[in-house]
Specification:
Elements: E1 2-7, H1 13-25, E2 31-33, E3 38-40, E4 57-62, E5 69-76, E6 85-92, E7 97-104, E8 114-119, H2 128-135, E9 138-140, E10 150-152, E11 161-166, E12 176-177, H3 186-203, E13 212-217, H4 220-240, E14 248-254, H5 263-272, H6 284-307, H7 311-325, H8 327-332, E15 334-335, E16 338-342, H9 351-360, H10 363-369, H11 382-390, H12 393-396, H13 399-408, E17 412-418, H14 426-435, H15 441-446, E18 450-454, E19 457-465, E20 468-473, H16 480-483, H17 485-496
Parallel strand pairs: 8-11, 8-13, 13-14, 14-17, 17-20
Antiparallel strand pairs: 1-4, 2-3, 4-5, 5-6, 6-7, 7-11, 7-12, 9-10, 15-16, 18-19, 19-20
Helix pairs in contact: 3-4, 4-13, 5-6, 5-14, 6-7
């Protein structure tokens, strides 16, 4: 592995051009021309400590196994003054594509605590949303009480973990491509995510071998099982070749879009049953229409999107299901991520989204983070979303197969869900988990549900077997750490400690 440092945070075309030649020829010697002299960086990366990364320059890291990738990282004063904070980019395809990330060391014990990754979903939504309105060290200031636009979050998940937030795939958030390219499938995105994780662990020796946990929500229910599977498969190759492996311990999925065939059945129960509210809000006539359409929808989804995938027939099945089983909810004006609230602001239904965009578009914020994207920040990229849909990404591969494969290989899985979510609801998640064909299926289905509590107060229900845990969080919507911050932190603390909920 190789390290070099480049002064300044501006365009890197000249440096990258010389790096491209060096990477391709294998002649790179760790000295980069910067226009203001050269910086010697012939360091043994096995001894590199993250604290050696400066705040006035990007440290650029490369790896011989990833000749088309490099990582730029700098120290930052962003968000949490109590820990070391780093931001930067994973540059892909000789620097033509750039994935942005934030990294926060643990508030507890950075030298011993586990490492965690968080991604948001979409597809095409920025993990900055999870950072600034859910589980990050600071939250967007919605009351104008701070001097810097954010407020301290005492319930941040970096209370007990070193955590990074990754904007992926390219085209999302502050991630961008020089020529507008993007990734169009989860399987392709997994290659870049694995490269980033590998370079990180193999470069910063203080984290080598640490337990690693991959977490996220929503379309993360599709992303994470595939990304984690890439890590497991590559670990097997690394072990054969005598290379370091990534110590992947678990995957945490919140209100995930994983078992797509059960989503509509779950939505019916949320709207017309008592799965969310004691008294259903939906009109009886609409519920009757949904009930009559549900068997046809379920049959078509299983036939054309699951058992024998056909892109045209699957698209037709999805269109039918959406028309018959989703339009009534959209017409209600309610928040699709929290059935107990009305939709506010834009289509994402939370006023925080506009505030986060305004904050991240400030020149001072971009400078603090070292952002080099030529575009303004966007919470979700419609272009990325359309491309994933055009490839039928969430329908073409049953993601629960990846979950089963991970469980078979000893990776623990936490599937948690707020009960007020409609979009990726808890009922749908329970149904696909119950149906999943895996080695512990019988043991899991025979296990008993129990309440899980904090200080004697009920938070939700849970059950576990063979590395798999399912948990509900009562009264939370799609974004559990936003709605139930204290409860979500305790959940994560228990999970990281290997304790039952």
């Amino acid at each position: 592995m190789l390290l070099r440092q480049v002064l300044g945070l501006g365009p890197l075309q000249g440096v990258l051009a010389s790096a491209q030649h060096a990477f391709s020829t294998g002649s790179y010697d760790g000295i980069a021309s910067t226009g203001s002299g050269t910086v010697e960086a012939n360091l043994n990366v096995s001894t590199l400590h993250l604290s050696s990364v400066g705040s006035d320059e990007y440290t650029i890291l490369s790896h011989p196994r990833f000749p088309y990738h490099q990582v730029r990282v700098k120290k930052s004063d962003f968000c949490d003054p109590t820990v070391n904070v780093y931001t930067g980019y994973l540059d892909v395809d000789y620097g033509a594509k750039h994935l942005f990330f934030y990294f926060f060391e643990s508030r507890n014990d950075r030298d011993k605590d586990d490492v965690m990754m968080w991604i948001n979903g979409g597809p095409g939504c920025s993990s900055s949303m999870g950072l600034l309105m859910e589980l990050g060290p600071c939250q967007i200031d919605m009351k104008n009480v701070s001097s810097n636009g954010t407020v301290w979050n005492p319930y941040s998940w970096n209370n007990n973990a070193n955590i990074f937030f990754l904007d992926q795939p390219v085209g999302v958030g502050f991630s961008y491509a020089d020529h507008g390219e993007t990734i169009e499938t989860t399987e392709d995105a997994a290659k870049n995510v694995y490269a980033f994780i590998s370079i990180f662990f193999e470069t910063f020796s203080q984290f080598a071998g640490r337990p690693f946990h991959m977490s996220g929500e929503s379309y993360g229910g599709r992303y994470l099982p595939v990304f984690a599977s890439q890590v497991v498969d590559q670990n097997k190759l690394a072990a054969v070749e005598g290379r370091p492996i990534i110590n992947l311990k678990s995957v945490l999925i919140g209100n995930g879009n994983t078992g797509i065939s059960t989503m509509y059945e779950g939505r019916y129960e949320i709207e017309c049953g008592k799965a969310a509210l004691d008294v259903p809000f939906q009109k009886i006539s609409q519920c009757v229409r949904m009930k009559m359409a549900l068997p046809r929808c379920t049959e078509a989804m299983e036939k054309h999107c699951g058992n024998n995938f056909d892109s045209l027939d699957c698209a037709a099945a999805v269109a039918f299901c959406d028309n018959e089983l989703s339009t009534g909810y959209w017409a209600s004006g309610r928040n699709v991520y929290d059935i107990s609230k009305m939709c506010l602001g834009d289509s994402l239904c939370y006023l925080e989204n506009s505030a986060i965009k305004a904050y991240l578009d400030l020149p001072s914020t971009r400078s603090l983070l070292g952002v080099t994207s030529p575009r303004n920040f966007s919470a979700c990229s419609s272009d990325v979303g359309r491309l994933f849909v055009s490839h039928m990404d969430k329908w073409s591969h049953p993601t629960e197969f990846y979950v089963a494969g991970l469980l078979h290989r000893g990776v623990r899985m936490l599937i948690y869900a707020g009960t007020y979510d409609w979009q990726c609801n808890w009922v749908a998640n329970k149904l696909w988990v119950d149906k999943m064909d895996w080695v512990g299926k019988d043991e899991y289905n025979e296990a008993k549900w129990r309440d899980w509590t904090i200080g004697g107060g009920k938070v939700g229900e849970t059950k576990s077997a063979g590395g798999l845990t399912f948990a509900t969080i009562r009264g939370a919507g799609h974004m559990v750490p936003h709605d139930k911050p204290a409860e979500s932190l305790v959940m994560v603390q228990r999970w990281l400690a290997g304790k039952s909920l």
